[in-house]
Design goal:
The complex is a heterodimer of chains A (438) and B (301).
Chain A lengths: L1 H21 L5 E8 L6 H22 L6 E8 L4 H11 L14 H14 L3 E2 L17 E2 L5 H16 L9 E7 L2 H4 L2 H11 L2 E7 L7 H10 L3 E5 L3 H12 L7 E3 L6 H4 L10 E4 L8 H9 L16 H24 L6 H9 L2 E2 L1 H6 L9 E2 L12 E6 L4 E4 L8 H18 L9
Helix pairs in contact in A: 2-12, 3-4, 12-13
Chain B lengths: L2 H34 L6 H19 L3 H22 L9 H23 L16 H6 L5 H23 L1 H11 L1 H6 L4 H27 L9 H11 L4 H26 L4 H15 L14
Helix pairs in contact in B: 1-6, 1-7, 1-9, 1-10, 1-11, 2-3, 2-4, 2-9, 3-9, 6-7, 6-9, 7-9, 10-11, 10-12, 11-12
Classes of the chains: A alpha/beta (438), B mainly alpha (301).
Chain lengths: 438, 301
């Protein structure tokens, strides 16, 4: 019996080995996805991870990958926990021919990965989150945080407020409150808002909310007492939903309450029902599923039962966020392939792709994303891109977000010196000699 | 009335009502601890599980809220039976720490099962509870939400029912006997297993009430399980075995943390509510180690 089993195994192996050799896989690109589908922040992690996965799968199904190289997405669960995120990084970085790029999807994890990935020479794309001063490519060679940083977000929101008030000079004497998640993420915009307060003459009221933010009574009692002209919010997860509800309860006008782009998804406003009508948030891309790429996602994935999530949730704000992250990353890989003349780029070559990335309006149209977001151009010095953001508004009746403003440019005179200052401090602390980009 | 006095009243009422919300969660802990000496780590997750089941039934079956509530109560009783069958039964006479660890495992299992059954989206819970500020008080300059008032009334009713249940019914007396000594209770013919099923069922129903209140205010989602963190200082302060303790403890913690946040925040920094609650509870422990209403246990060796 034993002998028969061994013979069979040898026979199977003998047939299988040459077959495997004959169908040697084409080049495979390994893209880890640090997702969180469990834990308290899962409602936000899931749509992002689905958008991210769907775009990569679309490239595989529709185009056969990128320039003929198939993409292998390796998902690892972080539960939005920094320690687990770092474990995911360690476990996936050697996968296949080596991980090409990381999207940590958490400011805490990003902070941990900045030194690790830099020494492992793997690019990190912390899209619209993470360490703001990573915008300075001279110091942060391996980190990219385009299309906009939190500091850009702060300057664009203040510009929108100024426009509603009748000009930047009208900000003088106004009271602006910041309700923020009491974490590295939530504290990011404070410095920028303080510098602007000095320059434009508004008063800044800081109201931190402790994790997870289920109970915010004290915060909103202070808002009631201080009566700020505008409230800005850097929140995440349940904190957003409770804040929107509390604001509605104290009858704070929703159209004077603006969240950053992580406080502006369907999840944040739906629990408040009609009361959330008119709530605003910053946006770096459009909501909705009316773009060419979504039609392809339906045709190549959901019609064939290959979608990562539920069909009717394609096009939600955070789904589109994951999708646009995958799109920019895939274009960076494509650029790397062109620069280095290979369809099997290494992580270091992908970084070159990021540094030479250009996705203009024409390219967006080719990708089925006309009008979805704005054109970007990344360079050796500038890892944060153009830093634009628009304002979107929630329509509770239609249950839809709508972009209601132009894309505002950041205020480089505000953010530039702050980025220089912070990145210089980081360079000094870590004995980094800023490279020359000439 | 001066603005600052009015504001003080508003903060105090806000704190008291927030405290009631913590008490609702703390009550579930007390019930199980009182009757079985187990610190049920899974209590927060039970609130989440109950709320998820309720919303799930309302959404998937399209049944009215009250039918869904009755069905959820059924699910919580079934859950209690399963917990007794699969977990507790095998751990009779084990150290409390073993039972405590079993409840940690239970928390993870329930979280996973809830996720598998109902998904992890944020779900709006609408069982017809009123929402928004109380108009006439708002006009007076005091912000109180209707939901909090409902929560306060519910908590009062719940405590009254539980008090009658523990003091006046046979089962209640049996529960207290088991709490004092498992083996002695067994020796006089009280069925430990039935008692455990009953107490976990009652605690499951209390978890459902807490889940409805918290879920109505923030939407039903996984962070609901973290409300247990808010109940811990309440338990430390009120004592682990006292139902009135859970209520009074909740009120003290609620008011204390709101006063601290608003009046001390400017001096020692804001967002101090969470740790201040623990500091307050620990300060009480220095004076009364058994908590405000806890039983003083004298162990003779």
């Amino acid at each position: 019996m034993m002998f028969r089993k061994i013979t069979l195994a040898i026979a199977v192996a003998a047939i299988a080995v040459p077959m495997a050799a004959a169908t040697a896989p084409a080049a495979e690109l390994t893209i880890p996805s640090l997702a969180y589908r469990t834990g308290p922040y899962a409602p936000n992690g899931i749509p992002f991870a689905n958008g991210y996965a769907d775009y990569w799968n679309l490239l595989n199904e529709r185009d056969g990958g990128i320039e003929g190289s198939k993409i292998k997405v390796v998902e690892c669960e972080t539960a939005y926990n920094t320690k687990q995120g770092v474990e995911c990084y360690e476990n996936t970085k050697g996968e296949g021919a080596g991980a090409l790029v990381y999207q940590p999807l958490s400011t805490g994890i990003t902070y941990q990965l900045i030194p690790k990935a830099s020494s492992d020479q793997i690019p990190v794309f912390s899209m619209g989150y993470g360490r703001t001063s990573a915008a300075n490519g001279k110091v942060f060679d391996w980190i990219f945080n385009f299309p906009a940083t939190y500091w850009d977000g702060a300057t664009t929101i203040v510009q929108y407020i100024a426009e509603q008030e009748g000009g930047m000079d009208k900000l003088k004497g106004k009271k602006l409150a910041l309700v923020y998640h009491n974490s590295a993420y939530g504290k990011e915009p404070i410095r920028t808002l303080e510098v602007m307060a000095e320059k434009f003459g508004y008063n800044l009221l800081l109201l931190p909310v402790d994790h997870p933010g289920q109970e915010q009574k004290a915060t909103w009692l202070q808002v009631r007492k201080e009566r700020p002209d505008w409230v800005m919010m850097w929140g995440w997860g349940v904190m957003n939903q409770v804040a929107v509800k509390e604001a509605a309860s104290i009858r704070y006008p929703m159209d004077r309450f603006i969240g950053i782009w992580w406080s502006g998804s369907e999840n944040d406003v739906l629990p408040a029902g009609d009361a959330a009508n008119g709530y605003l948030s910053a946006a770096v891309h459009a909501p909705g599923a009316d773009f060419g790429v979504h039609k392809d996602i339906m045709k190549f994935l959901y019609d064939k039962d290959k979608g990562a999530g539920e069909r009717d949730r394609v096009g939600e704000v955070l789904y589109n966020r994951g999708l646009v992250a995958a799109m920019w990353t895939s274009e960076a890989i494509r650029t790397a392939m062109k620069i280095h003349g290979t369809n099997e780029p290494t992580a270091a070559q992908v970084r070159d792709g990021f540094e030479n990335l250009k996705v203009d309006e024409a390219r967006l149209a080719e990708l089925g994303l006309k009008g979805f977001t704005y054109g970007i151009e990344i360079s050796c010095e500038n890892h944060s891109g153009p830093g634009k953001a628009a304002i979107q508004q929630w329509d509770a009746k239609a249950k839809q977000w709508r972009i209601i403003s132009k894309y505002y440019d950041r205020l480089p005179e505000i953010t530039g010196p702050l980025i220089e200052e912070d990145s210089a401090a980081y360079a000094k602390e870590n004995n980094i000699t800023p490279r020359s980009c000439n | 009335m001066g603005d600052s006095l009015l504001y003080f009243i508003e903060v105090t009422i806000g704190g008291l009502l927030a405290g009631v919300m913590y008490s609702l969660v703390a009550l579930g802990f007390v019930l199980i601890f009182k009757a079985s000496g187990i610190f049920n780590f899974a209590q927060g997750v039970m609130a989440l599980f109950a709320a998820l089941t309720l919303v799930g039934l309302m959404e998937k079956l399209g049944v009215p809220a009250w039918v869904a509530i009755v069905m959820t109560i059924g699910v919580m009783i079934l859950l209690a039976w399963l917990i007794e069958r699969l977990v507790l039964q095998h751990l009779v006479n084990q150290d409390p720490i073993i039972l405590f660890m079993a409840t940690i495992g239970l928390a993870y299992v329930l979280e996973g099962v809830g996720d598998l059954m109902w998904g992890s989206d944020v779900k709006a819970l609408n069982v017809g509870l009123p929402d928004g500020a109380v108009d006439w008080m708002f006009d007076l300059g005091i912000y109180v939400t209707k939901l909090e008032l409902v929560a306060a009334a519910t908590a009062a009713a719940l405590v009254a029912v539980l008090a009658v249940f523990f003091q006046r019914t046979r089962i209640g007396r049996a529960l207290r006997a088991v709490a004092d000594d498992h083996q002695a209770a067994l020796s006089v013919g009280i069925s430990l297993r039935t008692i455990w099923v009953i107490v976990w069922s009652v605690s499951g129903i209390v978890a459902l009430v807490a889940g409805i209140m918290w879920g109505s205010s923030s939407g039903v989602q996984f962070s609901l399980s973290l409300i247990a963190l808010k109940a811990l200082p309440v338990l430390i302060l009120g004592g682990f075995t006292s139902i009135p303790g859970a209520i009074i403890g909740g009120l003290i913690i609620g008011v204390g943390e709101k006063w601290a946040e608003i009046y001390l925040g400017d001096y020692i920094g804001h967002a101090i509510e969470n740790w201040f609650a623990y500091v307050l509870a620990l300060a009480f422990l220095l004076i009364r180690p058994q908590g405000l209403f806890g039983e003083k246990i004298i162990e003779r060796v």
